[in-house]
Write the structure tokens for this entry.
Amino acid sequence: MNLYDLSGSGRDAERFDQLLSQEGVRIERIVSNGQSTPEGEWYDQDWDEWVIVISGRASIRYEGKDELCLLKAGDSLFLPAHCRHRVEWTDSEQPTIWLAVHINAPRSENTGGLDE
């Protein structure tokens, strides 16, 4: 897979491509087109996650903090387990391509293709 290949990606929905799922690690590519976490919702994962923005831009908000963490191409972020966070916005002018590495996450049986 080429991380930059966006064929088959629409602009209406976020796309999740699972690249690898092994015991203790899951790697996925996420393509966002202006999506954000729904208002009032927070991610609170039981596992660590490291993300890098490959292209585009996005911002992350941590619960209880006023400032946003702006991410642009090349920026990475480590989110420890139970660090409540949300995606405030992703670039609506161009796709934002993320690479997410989930550490000590449950293994998924889907080792490739789209997660639904």
